[in-house]
């Protein structure tokens, strides 16, 4: 009888310590998203995040004909909700900072290659040259919430929308008083707070050469955005050549920069998302120079020859068979 009471007591103690975990999956922004929340109020927090991201998708999607951004693209002129204007302004600041490696006006190029419709094709040089004439952030004018696209320009938030969604979700989790959470928005991981057992967040970096495998594991604590852009995410092959979805706005072709994967770790998820695309376009040397000039992110670059570069701020947080530490 005594033994039995002790067991029940231990069980109660154990249950008292264990924090509940609520998890939800939903489809938005063309991908499956997963949200996991620790502690009380998990159900409410998961629902709030799902509603927020679904709302954002309805505004930002280029493929839903009725979205504010699709309407703007169709008419060349229009009013955007304030948060889409904010996102556009923040994206254009990154366009300037990355010297045009990230450019939301690359959308007509993305379309030309068939990445929005899955009707993939390798366009001719003259088709590319023609569409390139519409590309350039200088074609965008913002006046309050009124946006005008000159020269046939069209915009796409594909490179930053998930980062923006993660950033907004962090604010929601704060408002809801959530203890710890992790969002997995296909290639965009957002950690929030500290798990009840105090352990680090463990993030697997996909092996770009064998996408069922993991090439490195990253350990982070607290609230961080960990975003990866890879040429293995979305691509098609023709005549033995692989064409992927990250475009070089200067050439109008899939970026042929020698990189196959770029991971950015930063406090801000929009920054991390934008830079994962931009550094992919830049290639190793320019990307590392850019990192040396910056102080708001760390990065892991994987080159097509298999070299893994890890910037020094992450060196102690990475587990990987072989890697090169990059110093300032
Ligand atoms: P993913 O969407 O796979 O996570 P990214 O964040 O790198 O990958 O975004 C790629 C998407 O962004 C493309 O599908 C396209 O819509 C858009 N895009 C591609 N190249 C660029 C670029 N250089 N600048 C801005 N947007 C881009
Ligand atoms: Mg990105």
Structural commentary:
This protein has 328 residues and is of the alpha+beta class. Helices cover 34% and strands 28% of the residues. The model is unreliable at 4-16 (pLDDT under 50). The radius of gyration is 22 Å and the shape is globular. Strands 1-2-6-7-10-15-16-17-19 form a 9-stranded mixed β-sheet, with helices on one face. The site of magnesium ion (MG) has 5 residues, from helix 8.
Based on the model shown, name its key terms.
single chain, 328 residues, alpha+beta, three-stranded antiparallel sheet, globular, binds adenosine-5'-diphosphate
What is this structure's SSE topology?
Elements: H1 2-17, E1 21-28, E2 31-38, H2 42-60, H3 68-75, E3 77-79, H4 82-97, H5 107-112, H6 125-132, E4 140-143, E5 146-149, H7 161-175, E6 180-184, E7 188-193, E8 201-206, E9 214-220, E10 224-230, E11 235-238, E12 241-244, E13 247-248, E14 253-254, E15 259-266, H8 269-282, H9 284-293, E16 298-303, E17 308-311, E18 318-319, E19 324-326
Parallel strand pairs: 17-19
Antiparallel strand pairs: 1-2, 2-6, 3-5, 4-5, 6-7, 7-10, 8-9, 9-18, 10-15, 11-12, 13-14, 15-16, 16-17
Helix pairs in contact: 2-7, 7-8, 8-9
This protein binds adenosine-5'-diphosphate (ADP) and magnesium ion.
